[in-house]
Specification:
- Helices cover 26% and strands 32% of the residues.
- The longest helix has 44 residues, at 23-66.
- By secondary structure, the protein is of the alpha+beta class.
- The strands form 2 sheets. Strands 1-12-9-10-11-8-7 form a 7-stranded antiparallel β-sheet, with no helix packed on it.
- The protein has helices at 3-19, 23-66; strands spanning 80-81, 88-89, 95-107, 112-121, 127-135, 153-156, 162-167, 178-183, 190-193, 199-208, 211-217, 226-229.
- The protein contains 2 helices and 12 strands; from the N terminus they run ααββββββββββββ.
């Protein structure tokens, strides 16, 4: 090759470098461009996913905070239900049997009174327990002897171990805080419980007809609702 031909070849190679693309550089640029959209796509789905995770975590925490544990199961209540018939005030044509039994003395507006329990039968021949109030020392059945318009108040006698009962109240023939019951003659111990489980122990004060008569101190406004007769074990009073 002559010197002239060599110079011409060098000039052609120089021009070829100017117009021929740099393949390595082009490949690197292509890879860079391909990686950039992937990062954008990752950001597009990553942000909503993070928001969903935040919401789910908040719901889980709120559920744990707001969930109230169920109340404990109530303890077994002693005895059985005490069902007392509604008293009938001053029923007509009562037939009293025997002498009434004095229960308790209490103060009226002008004088002292005594509550009595009486065994009687009503017009239909149904046996009833009657509670009446008489001026202290008065004779049963005398004129104007009863206290207020609710004396006597009578309840029917049933066949239950506790066959009848009357809970005292203000203005009644038995003062508030007292209760009287008829029970089977085989009854030795009578325990009474109010709705809260508070215990009252009734005291036998004698007989009325063929049954035992019990007098109890009860919580005013919270009458007995359950009872035990001759329990086999002692039951502590609720606090």
């Amino acid at each position: 090759m002559t010197d002239h031909e060599r110079k011409l070849a060098d000039a052609l190679r120089a021009e070829a470098d100017k117009v021929t693309p740099n393949l390595d550089a082009a490949w690197a640029e292509q890879l860079r461009r391909q990686r950039r959209p992937r990062r954008r796509r990752a950001a597009v789905w990553a942000a909503p996913l993070a928001a969903v995770l935040v919401v789910l975590t908040s719901v889980a925490i709120a559920t744990q905070v707001n969930t109230v544990p169920p109340p404990p199961a109530p303890a077994a209540r002693p005895g059985q239900d005490l069902v007392l018939a509604k008293p009938s005030i001053s029923p007509p044509d009562l037939n009293f049997a025997g002498e009434p039994k004095a229960l308790v003395d209490f103060a009226g507006q002008t004088e002292a009174w005594t509550s009595y329990a009486a065994d009687a039968t009503d017009r239909a021949g149904q046996r009833v327990l009657c509670v009446e109030a008489l001026p202290m020392g008065a004779t049963h059945g005398g004129p104007e002897s009863n206290f207020g318009i609710e004396s006597p108040s009578c309840v029917p006698v049933s066949g239950s171990p506790v066959s009848a009962g009357y809970v005292g109240k203000n203005g009644g023939p038995l003062p508030e805080g007292k209760a009287v019951f008829l029970a089977d003659p085989m009854t030795r111990v009578l325990r009474l419980y109010d709705e809260a489980g508070n215990l009252s122990l009734a005291k036998a004060i004698g007989t009325l007809g063929r049954d035992l008569l019990f007098l109890a101190d009860v919580k005013p406004g919270s009458p007995p609702v359950r009872f035990e007769v001759n329990p086999t074990r002692a039951q502590p009073a609720s606090r």
